[in-house]
Design goal:
single chain; alpha/beta; Rossmann fold; six-stranded mixed beta sheet; four-stranded parallel beta sheet; 13 helices; globular
Amino acid sequence: MREQRAPLAPEGVESRVSVADVLAAKARLRRYLPDTPLHYAERFGVWLKLENLQRTGSYKVRGALNALLAGIERGDERPVICASAGNHAQGLAWAAWRLGVTAIAVMPTAAPATKVAGVKHWGGTVRLHGNSYDEAYAFALNLAQENGWRFLSAFDDPDVIAGQGTVGLELAPHAPDVVIVPIGGGGLASGVALALKSQGVRVVGAQVEGVDSMVRAIAGDTRAIDPVPTLADGVKVKIPGFITRRLCASLLDDVVIVREAELRETLVRLALEEHLIAEGAGALALAAGRRVAGKRKCAVVSGGNIDASVLAGLLSDIRPRPPRKPRRRTSERLRSGPQGRNSSSNFPHTSFIATAGEETPR
């Protein structure tokens, strides 16, 4: 059997993407998508970018919507087909509904029921095929070629990468010193790194042990992997993209590998301690946070589309370790002015609230 390796370049697709493309994406998306909030997870000591609160419950809608809008600007209003483990399909379905474009999504047969239902809710056509993202990808690409449809990669497309990069643009004003992002195919990591690296922000990727195709590709091993079973179905990619592989290799400061047990515990702690619902891939960056140094760390919670039965099972089976005890406060961050009067003019205006003594991104 011929060994499967990473593609050299997406056929018929411009492979360059720049910071200017990310800025253009932000201008397009401003009318349609809200900025997502930041939340300080005090027990983790990490700021969280809550993409689980974005339209369709994931950052993926950013790239899908930007790609459709950019295509319309170029005069391309063909039906659009994608392959997706779920979130890209939901994002595309919502974007297509919003713009009046026909959308078809090919999803693996084991795709979470909540994600399949989400695609159908927004009027997308669902075709279930194959046992992995890569099998769904090959089938979708064949359908696109047969019918003359536009194929939209979940990650290896300049318009998609630029759209995902708007996550980084929203973080930039808050001056984190390091941002941690989950990696499947690498679209989010590539876009965020493009948006932030010129500002001196470190960008660190996170992958699950045994589902680490990007780490291997950066090291020069572009063979397809056989991903192990994982809660993080959204990052279960055998081969990363050509564009994303090149960008991640040149822009990421590091990639951290997370054990499955760490991922599961982090997801449960998010629910119990921070009252936030994340899917497996959504908790991945935070799970990696303990191995990443930084005074103002930010982890991207990339999505919250988890089946209720899966979440219930995790909450029933996993007993997280007690969180670290808070350190004794040596000073209050919000203190009175020199004459004992409160002086708000000494503090910069921010879009989020910090409790006394927290480390707040500037």
